[in-house]
Amino acid sequence: MKHDVELVLVNPGGRARIYQSLANELAAIEPPVWAGLIASFVRAKGHSVAIVDANAEGLSPEEAAERAIEMRPRLVAVPVYGHQPSASTQVMPAASAVTNALKDAAPELPVILVGGHVASLPARTLAEERCDFVADGEGLYTLVDLLDALASSASPDFAKVRSLWSREGKSARCTDATAPLVQDLDREMPGIAWDLLPMQRYRAHNWHCFGEPSRMPYVSLYTTLGCPYKCSFCCIQAPFKSGEAAAGYKASVNSYRMWSPVRVLDDLTHLVEHYGVRNVKIADELFVLNARHVDALCAGIVERGLSLNIWAYARVDTVKEGMIAKLKAAGVNWLAYGIEAASARVRDDVSKGFGDELVASTLAKSRAAGIHVIGNYIFGLPEDDFETMQETLDLALEMKCEFANFYCAMAYPGSSLYERALAEGWPLPESWSGYSQHSVDSLPLPTRHLTAGQVLRFRDDAFQTYFQHAPYRGMVERTFGPAVLREIDAMTAHRLERRFAA
User: Which of 14, 58, 130, 463 is the most core-located residue (most Cβ within 10 A)?
Assistant: First the structure.
């Protein structure tokens, strides 16, 4: 059979199921960063690639499958990655639907699943899904090895495909050789394959563009991969762990890799000049960490005269003296800080240790420089009770960040909290969609003192309390104007339907 393209990457849809009514106007439509990175890597190895972004184009699973099959590919890969570090699992229902549609329409077409959730539970994924293969780990070398094997003969030998899970009768097994992490990011994975994406369809978060003329065009990109910290509720390292061992990392150390500042700056310049991009999300799990890396990027953005509206993740204990002014000068208008909880006892139990004074001082410095703050808070960590959750809400009301995200604690596959939940027999969602923070069947963890339903109800009530709080509303109107306050009102009008809230 003649193949028009060797690899088609299908980014699953499912926005409405994940975000309910918030998906229509408020949620971002993110470019599929990992699909774009995979495409870049595979092309650099000499293979032809295409991307079908079902999420951005609003395609049904059947439409996405039909689009992929029309290209007569050698292999279809479905990346299972979310648009925030711990959001891979909630993509699984959409990934499963696309896989089923592919197999219904073209049962002979090889399909592989790759991504954070998949790397966390490779054997289970292969047992539950209709795919032919699952990639353990990062998946990049696995895909190239698999393409080479499929091209080699009518009866390919998959034994040499590194980190590949496949079926042997009724059981699943992984090949003996482990794929290492990609080390030379600049050379082997030079950014995202923007030319393969429907760039006109991506849209920033509503808050990202408070006071801005438009939420489009918009991109998200990585400047680094991985995180050196080990918060127990985070699964960001899940796709990297097996490759870390193969690349020689100690078991106690998390990988943290960087593209060169010049490579990132060239990418940003290309996005501005070719697509008119202004709104940018730096999707790094922790962007504000390595001072030299951050300083070089900020200086380069200023030198090149790029006018950007950027947001990025940071920790209150990594933003060093003198760094905030450089970030603002480069167009970083929003920093998202993981404050998580007010109680030191609750924070320490999940390896997130810093004091309230540091939180207050770092946020004050950011805002004094003109950088808006997103406070990220978590309710329902293992040591939480009603009193400590109220302390967290009170802290949020006191800080009055320009925007706030309120999450429930989830034991995401790939996190140490997930392993702890299994070991202690804590109830977990019955379906993968239940791991979404905003879904109808969202089911957070219970705590030692509260049921999952009590945590979920507290979270949803806290969301309304925060955004309807008079001091917050006054700050928003003074900072952004009455139009943005009306956006806040429109947002809080969306009450999420919940099956398990108390």
Answer: 14
Residue 403: which domain range? 206-492
CB 11 within 8 A of CB 63: no
Residue type, 203: R
497/480 Cα distance (integer angstroms):
30
* Amino acid making up residue 345: R
Residue 30 lies in a domain: yes
DSSP string, 10-39: EE---HHHHHTTHHHHTS-B---HHHHHHH
Closest CA to 321 of 361, 282, 375: 361
Same domain, yes or no, for 429 and 326? yes
Closest Cα to residue 163, out of 110, 126, 109? 126
Q: In this structure, how many other beta carbons lie within 10 angstroms of the beta carbon of residue 187?
A: 10
- The DSSP symbol for 304 reads T
Q: Is residue 189 part of a domain?
A: no
pLDDT tens per residue across span 305-342: 999 999 999 988 888 878 999 999 999 999 999 888 88
Do residues 219 and 291 both lie within one domain? yes
Separation between Cα atoms, residue 302 and residue 331, nearest integer Å: 9
CATH number at residue 126: 3.40.50.280
Q: Comparing C-alpha atoms, which of 260, 282, 262 is closest to residue 30? A: 282
Total domains present in the chain: 2
Residues β-bridged to residue 279? 218, 309
Q: Is 194 a domain residue?
A: no
User: What is the pTM for the complete model shown?
Assistant: 0.93
